[in-house]
Design brief:
Strand content: 35-45%
Largest sheet: 8 strands, mixed
Strand order of the largest sheet: 2-3-4-1-5-8-7-6
CATH superfamily: 2,3-Dihydroxybiphenyl 1,2-Dioxygenase, domain 1
């Protein structure tokens, strides 16, 4: 299980700081401008960070900037627990169980980055993400 942080436009600055503290290199770094052409982002948002990951020991610190098509950012809801699973079935099971009584932010589906992914807030107000990396064809 890893931590996913959300920022309001300063994700790049924060992760450069974290990298200076922990060392290492980013495993992923993409802006919203790197997304597919039909992704609904404004020109102003294209330079914002869509996803960054920094391995730290046996964990990964991940993050992004908020966007106009996601939930509004507020201190206290700017983090999620992210789980990488080993099968689509495991993804379905965790999503169903943990989202019961909560609210779905992004239904499970195949994403442009090659994963089966979903996002929700559980009935206790905790934000979750589950990701299954699809096999390469």
């Amino acid at each position: 299980m890893n931590t996913y942080l959300t920022f309001d436009g300063n994700c790049r600055e924060a992760f450069e700081f974290y990298r200076s503290v922990f060392g290492g290199e980013f495993a992923d770094f993409q802006t919203f401008g790197d997304g597919p052409p039909d992704m609904p982002v404004s020109e102003e948002e294209k330079g914002r960070v869509m996803h960054v990951s920094l391995p730290i020991g046996s964990s990964v610190l991940m993050g992004s900037d908020s966007s106009s098509f996601g939930p509004p950012l507020a201190v206290g809801n700017n983090f999620s627990l992210s789980i990488e699973v080993t099968s689509r079935e495991q993804c379905d099971e965790l999503f169903a169980k943990l989202s019961a009584g909560g609210s779905v932010v992004m239904p499970l589906g195949e994403m442009f980055w090659g994963a089966y992914f979903g996002q929700w807030t559980d009935r206790f107000g905790i934000n979750w993400m589950v990701n299954y990396t699809l096999p390469k064809e």
